[in-house]
Amino acid sequence: MFAVHLISFFFSKLQEDPTKKVDRFLYAMRLHDDQLSDISARFQAEMRKGLSAESNAAASVKMLPTHVRSTPDGSEKGQFLALDLGGSRFKVLQVKVREGMGIRRGGVEMVEKTYPIPKELLIGRGTELFDHVSESLKDFLHEKNISLEKKHPLAFTFSFPCEQSTLNQGLLVNWSKNYRARGLQGKDVVQALREAIDRTGGMDVEVLAMVNDTVATMMTCGFDDQYCDVGLIIGTGTNACYMEELRHIDLVEGDEGRMCVNTEWGAFGDDGALNDYITEFDRDVDAASNNPGKQILEKMVSGMYLGELVRLVVLKMAKLGLLFDGHVSDALRTKGKITTAHVAAMEEYKNGLKNTRNILMDLDLTPTSDDCVAVQHVSTIVSFRSSNLVAAGLTAILTRIKQNRNLRTVRITVGVDGTLYKTHPQYPSRLHKVVRRLLPECHVRFALSDCGSSKGAALVTAVAQRLASRRRQVDETLSPFRLSQEQLQLVKTRMRTGLEAGLKSKGPSTIKMLPSFVYRTPDGTERGKYLALDLGGTNFRALLVNFKKGLQQNTRLYHKIYTIPLEIMQGSGEELFDHIAQCVSDFLDYMGMKNAHLPAGFTFSFPCEQTSIDTGTLVSWTKGFKATDCEGHDVVSMLRDAIKRRNEFDLDIVAVVNDTVGTMMSCAYEDPECEIGLIAGTGTNVCYMEDLKNIEKAEQKTEKMEREEGTPEGGEKKLDDGTKREKKVGDAEIPKMCINTEWGGLGDDGSLNDIITPYDIEVDQNSLNPGKQRFEKLTSGMYLGEVVRQVLLDLTRGGLLFKGHVTEALKTPGIFQTKYLSQIESDRLALLQVRSILQQMGLDSTCDDSIIVKEVCGAVSRRAAVLCGAGMAAVVDKIRENRGLDHLNITVGVDGALYKLHPHFAEVLQETARVLAPQCNVTFLPSEEGSGKGAALITAVARQKL
Ligand code: 0WK
Ligand code: 0WK
Ligand code: BGC
Ligand code: BGC
């Protein structure tokens, strides 16, 4: 031992730069960049561990979700009370955000008072600590003459780790720093505060939000800087938070948008991850702390411990004779005698050495100037390590944000607070320099929170209030779209009544129930080549269908799709049919069958009154069509005339069918149980096989029909592909005809007015056929986008969306195409993509906006699906009762872009039909080749009879 003293004595005599010996002594504390990068990488791994549901429980860095989903966006306003507990000073504040007199535009006014917390309360009973807090609050209200009657929203900054499931609830995970009040760990500290406020009484305070001081600091700085997505505290304790992508936070529902995560990085190392950087002095500080083994990184970094680290180093060096000639004073042996304020003082540019001498003399030491230089350097190394470790942690967070946002470089601001950062003369610049050295490609700005974190806490509360009120207002706006079981039951009943009424009355009925003169579904005997023309909702298709001997599968089908320009849809009838004839001509050229003179079936997806299979008088246009001189005319004649006018080819139009009927036939070719056709596309409609006897309005025709059809014989039909097509004997006897219900007209008599919303009324009034097709306008692709647009307009006018800016784009009819609904609602689509879809429409949106847009789309499309489900339940139950069955198995052939492409429409429709018609087992069979094949089948059947 003596030898050591001897050597060091001579050593010092050599007038070596005293800092050198300190550098050697504290070699382990002097971290260079690749060590910092290593620590940063370790911390990133810890962050991933904390975020993942599997490893969160074991993670030392807890990555606590804060339920703060957005940084300030400038619309926050209100008056709030705030409590700031957990830092070096407990403060009570009143914060006025953009409200009240004299608040400069966009400004915040704050009045605050600091209340000391008696030491014993820090380690006493939790209830007493919170009583002190609420009594301080009451005192503040008195002192600042704030009315005790008025209900005050309160923001609570609580600077300890809490597990939160909402903004206004938080279970204390553990105390840290110098707090260790009993009975609160694992308890909801917001509830504890509410109870304390109730115990104190005489004030009406509503705790709306509780936030960690890092979060409040981020929000405070975010008020003036939209790039502030990180909050950093380097004070008594240390910690950081940042805006993480919600999809990475396993512990929180949803993957849309972002949420602030309180990393609680103070605990980094609690699982030994930093053991190779821990020095004996760190172990001593930890062993002497009130939470040994916990907050390892915090004890290497934060203000509560730096002074102590310096003291222990200086003490050890003195004992080793490296300082003060080995003289050690009791003061130097005493815990806490060197504070972080002392460390900061020692490192002051000008007076650092002087301060160091004074501080050491206060510790009853007589330092030489070299001693002072050495001790100052100890402070430098200890505080430098602190800022370096913070830099490593920040680098990890900023790197993760860069990766989350797939950016090569990121511009970001870090909001900072804390006494150590604020009062240590060199801490900020050292930190900034190292972060910029470790992350050269990032543009990192540090914003000092100049007025504590309560402004931020108030903003969180304002956001909470705004989100809560927005949530309430959006729910209010969307609640009429959320139809209850009872309402759907009513719609089913009204649909049933409409079906019955339509079958009876000759005159106009809302549900027209148009006879299709199709008496049976295909039986597989159909043969030959047919042309099918398909005028649907959005385009025209020409198809060549060849039914061959043997397997159905080898039905040959060629087709070509043609768009129908708007001006043709809404031009003259002649132009429309000339356009169709031109398309047919082009198709026949394409197929090289100009002179084939083929029998053709014409799928015409509009309501037509038919008196036979090959005539159809258009009752009224629907969807986007408004061609003149068509309504009340026979569309087959109009097509024939157009073909004649063209005089290039000839067609034998044998049948005209509605697309629902064509779809039913197409699917019945695959599944003989298919007796219903459903279209959920641009328009919506359903047809089904009704018992002839129920089609009263078709009485007189019956004889003629029977004559034509001849009562169909029952029994089996052997097909030449050997497959037996079971002709269901039972219902064989009952002659049927397919009825095109045109259910789109339900409600035209006001029977749906109790579910029609003002948005629907707006859409109806702006449509080509106001007052008509009310059910269709609630359920089909032509209109859903417009309903969504009307709702978005209303929400934007209410300031709930797009920052209240009603842009030209949003006012443009048709801009929100229904296909966007399908895209926006797809589960696989992250919010960013929703935003880019909105971008395509010329709508700039925030994360929150797109969450709401998605919700509106969901509400509108879900209503459409459940309404169609209720309508379908009415149809299948009617068929079941027609056949006097307790249980009906039936298949529905379906087509239409909404049913086929929307991510949820089909399953919601099916589920609703199942629930509302429990005695029917309904299979939905999407049609492969559209209704064209069905039209060809009907043509084949019609030809067979000729
Ligand atoms: C001031 C903030 C407070 C935070 C404190 C941290 O208003 O919320 O806890 O900074 O720094 P400290 O006071 O612990 O140095
Ligand atoms: C494809 C059918 C056609 C029908 C259309 C409806 O072949 O007859 O009109 O589906 O779907 P939409 O094109 O309106 O989405
Ligand atoms: C606490 C954190 C807090 C930090 C800064 C730490 O001891 O665990 O919740 O943010 O101190 O005050
Ligand atoms: C038409 C129906 C058609 C449906 C689906 C409705 O607008 O009135 O005839 O079946 O659209 O295309």
Automatic annotation (TrEMBL):
Keywords: ATP-binding, Cytoplasm, Glycolysis, Kinase, Membrane, Mitochondrion, Nucleotide-binding, Repeat, Transferase. Residues 230-463, 675-941 form the Hexokinase C-terminal domain. One of its GO terms (cellular component) is mitochondrial membrane. GO terms for molecular function: ATP binding; D-glucose binding; fructokinase activity; glucokinase activity. It catalyses: D-glucose + ATP = D-glucose 6-phosphate + ADP + H(+); a D-hexose + ATP = a D-hexose 6-phosphate + ADP + H(+). Its EC number is 2.7.1.1. Pathway: Carbohydrate degradation; glycolysis; D-glyceraldehyde 3-phosphate and glycerone phosphate from D-glucose: step 1/4; Carbohydrate metabolism; hexose metabolism. It is a peripheral membrane protein. This is Hexokinase-3.
